[in-house]
């Protein structure tokens, strides 16, 4: 009987907490951009640590308050493209890449170098196997596996 009184009193006096449910629904409905924001925050924090930069110093570079930088670095802020661009410039790091067909020559050469490091290739002029990572001009390469010129427009 004593236990029932206690349970009844607890039921009457307790406040039903529905805030957690609202927060869970919000996270579920917005998980896409929240995940991206979190990834950007992790990369930004890593870059700051490498540079020995504080949040206050980053705030000065971004021309915003330290409180806003703190919100950005928590990874739950809906970051604008402008803010991502400013963060990348301030930290001198790539935080977010938007793929497109109009790559710069530098981007193409990086892509080519990454592909060249994946498989060994044969030089047209020397006809010998080149070791991993050795720089070659993409026009000099005969793809070992394809037996033709590069499939990339480099």
What does this structure look like?
The termini are far apart. 54% of the residues lie in helices and 5% in strands. Strand 1 (121-123) and strand 2 (129-130) form a beta hairpin. Strands 2-1-3 form a three-stranded antiparallel beta sheet, with no helix packed on it. The longest helix is centred in the N-terminal third of the chain and has 21 residues, at 31-51. It is mainly alpha-helical. The protein is elongated and about 70 Å long. The protein has helices spanning 2-13, 19-29, 31-51, 55-62, 66-73, 81-91, 105-116; strands spanning 121-123, 129-130, 141-142. Helix 4 (55-62) packs across helix 5. The model is unreliable at 114-154 (pLDDT under 50). It folds into two domains: 20-91, lambda repressor-like DNA-binding domains (434 Repressor (Amino-terminal Domain), Orthogonal Bundle); 99-154, no CATH class. Residues 47-97 form the HTH cro/C1-type domain. It comes from Flavobacterium arundinis. InterPro entries: Cro/C1-type_HTH, Lambda_DNA-bd_dom_sf.
Task: Write a concise synopsis of the structure shown.
Residues 47-97 form the HTH cro/C1-type domain. This protein has 154 residues and is mainly alpha-helical.
């Amino acid at each position: 009987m004593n236990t029932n009184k206690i349970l009844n009193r607890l039921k009457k006096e307790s406040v039903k907490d529905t805030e957690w449910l609202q927060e869970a629904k919000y996270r579920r409905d917005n998980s896409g951009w929240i995940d991206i924001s979190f990834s950007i925050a992790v990369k930004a924090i890593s870059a700051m640590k490498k540079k020995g930069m504080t949040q206050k110093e980053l705030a000065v570079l971004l021309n915003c308050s330290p409180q806003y930088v703190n919100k950005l670095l928590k990874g739950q802020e809906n970051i604008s493209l402008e803010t991502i661009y400013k963060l990348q410039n301030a930290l001198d790091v790539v935080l977010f890449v938007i793929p497109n067909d109009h790559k710069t020559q530098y981007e193409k050469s990086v892509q080519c170098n990454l592909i060249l490091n994946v498989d060994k290739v044969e030089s047209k002029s020397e006809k010998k196997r080149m070791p991993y990572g050795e720089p070659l001009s993409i026009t000099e390469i005969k793809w070992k596996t394809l037996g033709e010129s590069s499939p990339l427009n480099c």
